[in-house]
Amino acid sequence: MKLCVALDLPTLEENLNLANMLKEFDIWLKVGFRSYIRDGKKIIEELKSINPNFKIFLDLKIYDIPNTMADAASEISELGVDMFNIHISSGAQAMKAVMQRISNKKDRPLVLGVSVLTSFDNQTFKKIYGSTIEKKSEVFAKKAYECKLDGIVCSAYESKDIKELTKPEFLTLTPGIRPFGEDSNDQKRVANLEIAKENLVDFIVVGRPIYLNSDPRGVVQKILKRI
Ligand code: C5P
Question: What is the number of the ligand 1 atom nearest to the C-alpha of 117?
Answer without folding.
Answer: 21
